[in-house]
Amino acid sequence: MTDTAAPSLQGALPQERRLVTEIPGPVSTALQARKQSAVSAGVGVMLPVYVVRAGGGVLIDADGNSLIDLASGIAVTTVGNANPDVVSAVQTQVAAFTHTCFMVTPYSGYVEVCEALNRLTPGDHEKRSALFNSGAEAVENAVKIARAYTKRQAVVVLEHGYHGRTNLTMGMTAKNMPYKHSFGPFAPEIYRVPASYPFRDRGLKGPEMAEIATTRIDREIGAENVAAIIIEPIQGEGGFIVPDPGYFKAMADFAQAHGIVFVADEIQSGFCRTGDWFASEYEDVVPDLITTAKGIADGMPLAAVTGRAEIMDAVHAGGLGGTYGGNPVACAAALAAIGWMERNDAPALAREIESIMIPRLKEMAVQFPAIGDVRGRGAMIAIELIKPGTMDPDAELAGALSRFCHQHGVVTLTTGTHGNIFRFLPPLTMPHALLEEALGILEQAFEASAS
Ligand code: PLZ
Fold first, then answer.
1. Where do the domains of the chain lie, and which CATH numbers do they carry?
2. pTM (predicted TM-score)
3. Whose CA is nearest to atom 20 of ligand 1?
C-alpha cells in the first residue's frame, strides 16, 4: 500500500500513536477539573485530553501522548490540522490586519473566497456567495435568502436532519437530546418529512421514499407555500446516512418543479470530504443554494451560502451581514486550504481512505454481528451498531467501543439519532499506516466487548 499522504503534507509532528500516561493523563485531568469549575456544565467534552499540538493524523496532548485523530474536530481539519500552508497564510494576514468589517471597509480575501466558492460548487450557472461565521449562521441565512426570493415561508427538512443550535436551526434539527431539550419554543413554519435511510427503510427504494416525502409536502403544507427544502446529501449528526440512489435527485426535481429553493447543507459533507468536492455531485444534483463551513478553512471560523445569482441577489442591499462574517484571517485560511485541496487532488485522497476503510470494516462486519451496516463515502465513513439478530440500535456498545479506542489513543466519535453509529472522519493527511493501526484498535475493541 502506498502512503500517498506524503510526510511533507503532514507537518513536523512524528506520525505515531504513542501513549506515555493513561488517557486522560494527570495534566489533562487537572485541566478538566478547572474546566468543571470555570466552564458551563452545558458545554460537554467527549474526550478530556487537552490538546497542545496537532498535524497530519495525530493530536498531541498536554501529557505528551500522541493520539490518532479520526475526528478532524468534526470534519473540519480536512487538509490536516495546522496545515503549514494555512499557518503561513494566517500568519501573513494576521500581521497585516485582523479585522475591518467587510461591510465597513472591505478587503480582497472575502471576494476571492466567494469567487472560489462560485467556481468550485456544482453547476456552471452565474453564482454569488455571502460569508458568515458558523454553519448554523449559514443555514439561517440560506433560509432568509430563500424566503426573500420566493416570498414564501415554509421550510422543509428531513427526519434525522441536523442544521445547528441557534433557535431557527434547532427547530430544523431532528434530534431532541442534547440539541433541543428544554430550549423551546422553536421557530414556526418548519416541517419534517421522511429521509431515505436504506438500512431501515425495509427495502423501499430512494424514489419511493421521495414519493412519500413529497406527498407529505403536497398534503400537509402545499408545495406553493414552501420557500426551501434543505437536505444534507449525506446526513451527518443523524448517523452518516447515505440516501438510497434517486432520493436526493427526486427531492431536487420536486423543488424545481414547484419553484422551491433546493438547499444542500454541505457543511459536513463538503470540501472533498466524501471523495467529491461536494457530495451533491455524486448524483449530479445542482442545488440552488449550498451551505458550507467546517472543512472550508481548516478550523478558522468561516461559513458560506453560495448559489444562483438571481436568488442570492433577491435580498435587499444590506440585508445580509454581521460584524465578523468573512473575517480576513479566516478568508486567508480558506484560500490556503482550498489551494491545498486543488494542488493535492483532495477528493482522490478521500477516496483512498474509503478504499482502505470500507473493505476492512466489511470484514469486521462478518466477524462481529453487532455491525449491522457499513456505509459512507470518502473520508466520511460509519458503522451502525445493533443488537445481533435484531434491528435494535446498540448505543451502549458504541459507548464501550469509544471508551476502548480513546483509552488506546484513537480519537473516535459516535453519532446518530439513537447514538449507535460509530463514525470516522480522518483528516486527508492521515498516513495510511496510522489509519490501519486505528482500525486494528477498533477490532480489538470489538474483541474486548465480546469477551
Ligand atoms: N449543518 C450538516 O453537520 C455541524 C455539530 C456539533 P456549526 N455539525 C457538528 C455540535 O454538537 O454542535 C453542522 C452540520 C450540518 C450545520 C451544522 C452547524 O454548524 O458550525 O456547528 O454551527
1. 26-79+345-450 (3.90.1150.10), 86-343 (3.40.640.10)
2. 0.97
3. 135
